[in-house]
Amino acid sequence: MATTCYLARNPRRFHSTETTVTNVFKDLLMAVNWGQMSVLCLLDLSAAVDHNLLRQQLEHQFGLHGTALQWVRSYLSGRTFRIVYSDVTSFSGYVTCSVPQGSVLGPLLFILFLVDLADRVTKYCMSLHAYADDTQLYLHFCRSVITSSVDQLACCILDTGHWMSAKRLRLNTDNTELLFTSSSHSCATLSGRYLVLQLGTNTTIACSHVCLFGVNISSNLGLDHHVSRICIFVNYDISGGHYHHWTLSHWLYLSMPL
């Protein structure tokens, strides 16, 4: 069954990157308990929202009219940016796309702009989990249908790319990451020819682990690789280095099973 979950950056209390990691990891673990495999795909989406398309969508799809629509138009238009380096300041330029960074309304507008993505994904029985512009697709399947499942994922990603082009966004297939998850035995016997995803002219090879919001997820869903990386950072910090500024308690929190 396909599921969809959208989260903006801190729009609600108790929802954050930890929520995203927990939900995705839980779904992958549940699939193993059901005797299934999963394929997880981390998509790299551009976040440049076209203001005209967003206003049209708010008006025709969400029924925003009159003063409310004028508020949004005023909120997005007339914004400028410039670059300051040392004592040098660049000329100001107008922002004609994207949503205001660091704002409360910006991430919500971005989610509304991408709300149709769920319809595209569910056509292929894929599960979608998005935290602002960070999007994860995953599919649970039996080992006997792994070939058709990989083809199904490839078709879904290509269709998503066509949809994003129509929205004047971009799907960066070069930076797409792929991970097959299952029990240790199933992962060890998985043939290499199944670990390749063909996306047009680009080829994505499955990794042994991927990093999702700082948490390393391995193909066997173990946390050994994640804990090892934490130990490296912690040892460096204890020995007098300054590789990071996170506290030890935060690293230990990330290493706990979800």
Point out poorly predicted stretches.
Answer: 6-10
How many strands?
Answer: 13
Largest sheet data = 5 strands, mixed
Written as H for each helix and E for each strand, in order along the chain, the element string is EHEHHEEEEHHEEHEHEEEEHH
> How many helices?
9
**Approximately what portion of the residues adopt beta-strand conformation?**
15-25%
Describe the structure.
- The chain is an alpha+beta fold and 258 residues long.
- 40% of the residues lie in helices and 21% in strands.
- The strands form 5 sheets. A 5-stranded mixed beta sheet has the order 1-7-8-2-9, with helices on both faces. A two-stranded antiparallel ribbon has the order 3-6.
- Strand 4 and strand 5 (88-89) form a beta hairpin.
- The radius of gyration is 21 Å and the shape is globular.
- The relative contact order is 0.16.
Keywords:
single chain, globular, two-stranded antiparallel ribbon, 258 residues, alpha+beta, five-stranded mixed sheet
Topology (elements, then pairings):
Blueprint: E1 4-7, H1 17-33, E2 37-44, H2 51-60, H3 66-76, E3 80-81, E4 84-85, E5 88-89, E6 93-94, H4 105-113, H5 117-122, E7 127-131, E8 134-141, H6 146-166, E9 177-181, H7 184-188, E10 196-199, E11 202-205, E12 209-212, E13 215-218, H8 224-238, H9 248-255
Parallel strand pairs: 1-7
Antiparallel strand pairs: 2-8, 2-9, 3-6, 4-5, 7-8, 10-11, 12-13
